[in-house]
Write a structure and sequence with these properties.
The chain has 206 residues and is an alpha/beta fold. The protein contains 8 helices and 7 strands, in the order βββαβαβααββαααα.
Amino acid sequence: MRVPQKCPVMGYKRYSPEMLIGYARVSTSGQDLAAQRDGLAALGVDDQHVHVDHGLSGTTRARPGLREALAACRAGDVLVVTKLDRLARSLRDATDIADELTKKGVALNLGGAVYDPTDPVGRLLFNVLGMVAEFEADLIRARTREGMAIAKAAGKLRGRKPKLTPSQEKHLVQLHRTGEHTTSEIAELFGVARSTVYRAIQRATA
């Protein structure tokens, strides 16, 4: 039985969990997960219980590693992330995931503080963190578009767009099958041409 104790962070609680399930994510294939793995280890998560998404945006829920992490959680467990923006880049997704965990009897640990959905202040802090993560994602998209426009105007963007890695192509197909995004939206999300999206879908259905 888990015994909750008040945490110094207002609106949050600490628990003695049955199992800690870790989740880590980076948005590009060039980024390293080492810092997040170290952070999760410092929070008591065994590396064999860490699920990861490498090179996938937090603006979409359709992530294999996230799906595995949520499926691994059982009542009494704790899902651990180093920061909320690793879990989701939109307030709606963050709230949906937190609600899903609460219904399963799973706690959510954000960098050492366990979110308490029954506490008004805890919900407020969670919503603020979610809005900040969403705002940062919007800034990243805006800066990326601005940088591409400047580079294109300067004649620096030439040649074919980059190809997808096997894991990215698999994720692209899964995202397409949900029917929630257009081909253009998927192409923009992965930074490839629409023809690349079409070819990936054709290969998956061949």
